[in-house]
From TrEMBL:
The chain crosses the membrane at residues 12-33. SUPFAM superfamilies: LEA14-like. Pfam families: LEA_2. PANTHER family: LATE EMBRYOGENESIS ABUNDANT (LEA) HYDROXYPROLINE-RICH GLYCOPROTEIN FAMILY. This is Late embryogenesis abundant protein LEA-2 subgroup domain-containing protein. Keywords: Membrane, Transmembrane, Transmembrane helix. InterPro entries: Lea14-like_2, LEA_2. The keyword Cell membrane does not apply.
Amino acid sequence: MKGEGKRNSKCLAYVAAFIVFQTIIILVFALTVMKIKSPKVRFGTVAVENFTPSTTNSSSFDMRLVAQVAIKNTNFGHFKYDSSNVTILYGGMPVGEAVIAEGRTKARKTQKFDVNVDITSDKLSGNTNLTNDIGSGYLKLSSQAKLSGKVQLMKVIKKKKSGEMSCTMTVNLAQRAIQDLKCN
């Protein structure tokens, strides 16, 4: 009878240890894998494909930017996003826009693709800052985009998330190159 009591308390200790161990495993899983974060959207590289200054007006131009968009998904499930737009701004005014087609970024991966943005200064007529910036050879632009979609974990859990991009860049008109590309 004395041995039976020791055996029961030993079994109870093993069951309690197993329950504590399982609780720790579930807690670690819930705090790491199940934590869903917003994806990061950034410009990787931006290139000036062509730049055409106006021959009649010194404060007018057309150009095409080829921008590499990078969508970084740090989640353990894929991110499926809807079609969206990336807008290029000069002085807070839109000068160009491109479509980002709907797509899917795999779990823990970064998806990269190119977007062509046609920029024209037609909407900025009479802007003295634009004339000064073109004369200086440096054009300061900014960009904005928002990708909305869902992160899906284990084909069961779906959570709405969105990634936003806000970048600034300086176009060197003489070299037809981008300088000081900063995204946050």
